[in-house]
Amino acid sequence: MNIGDRGLRLLSGLALFVVLAAILAIFGLVVVEGAGALSWRMLVEAPSSDLATGGVMPAIYGTAACTLLMTVAGVPVGVATAVYLAEYAPRRSRFATAVRAAVRILAGVPSIVFGLFGLGFFVLFVGKSIDGLFYRDAASPVFGRPALLWSSLTLAVLTLPVVIVTTEEAIRRVPRELREASYALGATQLTTIGRVVLPHARAGILTGVVLAVSRGAGEVAPILFTGVANYLPRIPTDVRDGFMHLGYHVYVLATQAPDVDRARAMVFGTVLVLLVLTFVLDAAALLLRARAHRGTRS
Amino acid sequence: MTAKIETRDLSTYYREKAALKGVTLSIPERRVTALIGPSGCGKSTFLRTLNRMHELSEGVRVTGQVYLDGEDIFAPHVDPVEVRRKVGMVFQRSNPFPKSIFENVAYGLRVAGERDRAVLERCVRESLEAAALWDEVKDRLHESALELSGGQQQRLCVARAVAVRPEVLLMDEPASALDPIATARIEELIVTLKEKYTIVLVTHSMQEARRISDQAAFLYLGEMIEVAPTLELFESPREPRTQEYLRGRFG
């Protein structure tokens, strides 16, 4: 083996070591510090008023509710856009090219910008407009304030590109022969999409959904101005309520708690819960993607 | 003998390149018409215009007319979906849906709006019988169609095509991917199907055309060189290019 090869081998080994060490350091720290705080109580109780004891139940609930609403709002729009791009848009359509470019740009926008957009568009424009039209007599704003609904919609916009790109790719992987078989049997384009294309692309679409969910569940910046609360120990019952969120709760515990040192164990415990949650989602995405690829080959 | 389909001066262009040049052909009812010729001669292109499947490919343009029972299928008021219900198609590579055997055959009826379970079951059975597949699959109708062998899958595609009760069946080299035994079964099937359907068969196998067709047309470089009753075309071709092709000079 010549010197160049040996050198390269050493370097790539070193790089691998650095990556592994970083992962181990992060996880080691989180697990060692957080495992102590982790308890049944933590999962089912609300935090105490000084945040240092109690649990993170409202934050778990808030994260789940926000992510679920985001999915319900974003996925249909994303899938419909992808269907348009892959099935209806003429190949060299300028409009479709513009939409694709917009989707790529959207994917690159920093998430804090989405937060400001959510505040400006959803809370202040949409929300205030609804209040102005229907709740003119209300003493305090009904829709025109940060709320679970607006946070979810902001996250839906943020995760739209992931859904669009993976769905379009999945639709394009549906074999041409299957579409032709459907058309040759007298099916319309709509029927073919509904009965052949989308079912065949199902696993790929689900992968996109899970990727969107795992991204959306961990984002904090977009919900910062649009609905998340520092301390709201009761479970939100209305989409117009504020809510707690695991990611934001970590920040609050680490910087806003009355006694940051006492809250230290809780910080790591919360991080651990958040990590486990996003890992489970990522693993699900990987599994689905593997299934999607198997599905197209058979 | 009445003509089921007539094409008049039919040309197709892919972008600016002509793939078919002014083909005029009369396809008799309840007979097998075989299209032969070297690969790339336009026989598949011709077949795909007969049920307007060419419209699914971008950049394909057609001039001339195709008459189905005397009606121009390219007329503005004609819905391609209606054309395809009357003119079914079996493809070169069997392409069953990744669904059960039953659902494959029932697909065309379901998209046409049929919901009655009893009607679906009867039609699935009749179609599978017509495609000589019923006895092999009657006990596993709800298993995946992808479990079937290649020959069975192709006969399933025939069953699926006849389930919508078309009048014409277009077959694009239906046996080219099959072994000799499966090929023989498909050929037998085609011969029985012509009692009810008008069949247009694209084939690269001259033996196959000779065995099962009633009329044969020879296409070369997008032109229709010669059409005649099969025996006549094979025994005493008039055109020198047909003679050369049949003698294996080219293609």
Description:
The complex is a heterodimer of chains A (298) and B (251). By secondary structure, chain A is an all-alpha fold. Chain A is built from twelve helices and no strands. The longest helix of chain A is centred in the C-terminal third of the chain and has 34 residues, at 264-297. Chain A is globular and about 70 Å long. The relative contact order of chain A is 0.16. The mean pLDDT of chain A is 90. Chain B contains ten helices and ten strands. In chain B, strand 1 and strand 2 form a beta hairpin. Chain B has a domain at 3-96 and 167-246: P-loop containing nucleotide triphosphate hydrolases (Rossmann fold, 3-Layer(aba) Sandwich). In chain B, strands 6-7-8-3-9-10 form a six-stranded mixed beta sheet, with helices on both faces. In chain B, strands 2-1-4-5 form a four-stranded antiparallel beta sheet, with helices on one face. By secondary structure, chain B is of the alpha/beta class. The two termini of chain B are 32 Å apart. Helix content of chain B is 36%, strand content 27%. Classes of the chains: A mainly alpha (298), B alpha/beta (251). Chain B: InterPro entries: AAA+_ATPase, ABC_transporter-like_ATP-bd, ABC_transporter-like_CS, P-loop_NTPase, PstB-like. Chain B: One of its GO terms (molecular function) is ATP binding. Chain B: Keywords: ATP-binding, Nucleotide-binding, Phosphate transport, Transport. Chain B: It holds the Pfam family ABC_tran.
